[in-house]
Amino acid sequence: xxxxxxxxxxxxxxxxxxxxxxxxxxxxxxxxxxxxxxxxxxxxxxxxxxxxxxxxxxxxxxxxxxxxxxxxxxxxxxxxxxxxxxxxxxxxxxxxxxxxxxxxxxxxxxxxxxxxxxxxxxxxxxxxxxxxxxxxxxxxxxxxxxxxxxxxxxxxxxxxxxxxxxxxxxxxxxxxxxxxxxxxxxxxxxxxxxxxxxxxxxxxxxxxxxxxxxxxxxxxxxxxxxxxxxxxxxxxxxxxxxxxxxxxxxxxxxxxxxxxxxxxxxxxxxxxxxxxxxxxxxxxxxxxxxxxxxxxxxxxxxxxxxxxxxxxxxxxxxxxxxxxxxxxxxxxxxxxxxxxxxxxxxxxxxxxxxxxxxxxxxxxxxxxxxxxxxxxxxxxxxxxxxxxxxxxxxxxxxxxxxxxxxxxxxxxxxxxxxxxxxxxxxxxxxxxxxxxxxxxxxxxxxxxxxxxxxxxxxxxxxxxxxxxxxxxxxxxxxxxxxxxxxxxxxxxxxxxxxxxxxxxxxxxxxxxxxxxxxxxxxxxxxxxxxxxxxxxxxxxxxxxxxxxxxxxxxxx
Length: 556
Fold this sequence. Notes:
Strand content: 5-15%
Helix content: 40-55%
Shape: elongated
Largest sheet: 5 strands, mixed
């Protein structure tokens, strides 16, 4: 019987280890040949085969596999737009791809470069910023794939829309000027915007006829704000409604189309219009919890309000009769005005602010005083520097020039508000359009001056307008001693110490007394309502000019 020696055992053990190593290496090579990597795109993860050529993993073929697996446009790969990163968002290049795979890196993310190095930014996919979100990386944007869900009849493709507008503008000799101005200023002047709209509408009607489908109009509007993202309106639903709003059939594109068609109706007779809130005249319930009085208790409260000399008591009873007051204000058959029943508005200025706060809450009530002086005022002044020169604008801008004498002009606060009126000038409204008035004339509907010592009674007897306006009383326009809000020929004292606070009270008076905005000041007040106070955002009927100005002023 043969007995193995220690040397024989050692020899067999070594051969066994060598054999295991060879088997392990063979299995490893088989795994490498069938290497799979996990790739994430648009929140979806898929396994992708990693192609191999001559024992090296091929970067370009892998990207082609990714393109096919996620059904992406092949031109994105050929144009160098595809971008591959590892899980730490570090970009993966062709020269290190093979080494990464062999070192065990198996997880990747795919996105798209904003534009290749050799191309112009204006000609390639342009990310569209949103008021509620931002792109997480400056180097990549997410583009849609070919096999996305089927779009509904009202939906349009963002990239197709951008490309369409880009092509139309670049094919027009004047298109280059539009790109140059936007690249320089991140906005478009009124004249340049009109030029762009004319170019696009001309192409639209040539391609789709005198009455282009709604989807086409929407696509052009989407294309504009995708190609020029700073032109978006962050407060509207899609950001492009000032160019075309498919629900209301309004916007710069719609208006130009109506001019081309030479009639005011485009054939959508059966279409329902959006249910806009009517600003100050909308009946609103109190947002503040508190007991409301009705019947005999309400009549007792009215008596106390009428005769009490205690301001605190009056304010409490006014708070408890808010809903009764709202019903009186909105009662078309009421024979008495709210100022006849609640005449304490005429001697307790704080009551306007109290009622307004009951409608919208203290946070909204404080917004104008918080946001106008610190943000909007300087933005408006800067925007007005590019307005066409005229005497009235120059006089208003002089309030901000320390080297210019301004003995007869308004103070800086009122001047800034009147400059806003020049950015949102009066426009004729309705089918029977009234004659258009200038911004300088419309300013008289907003604020007036009365020399200190002049008869207030005589002044009020000559007032024609019912809508509230701010009466400034003082020795000079820039040195006001007191403010009065005039409503229904009645002077409501304003205890504001500044012009900004006085205008805040004037705006709130519209809501407290349910008074429509003066027609000449409609765009001006709606801008203040939605953009500064944030009242009825998305539900107010805004003109394209209001949305366009908001997009300009809110951009950083």
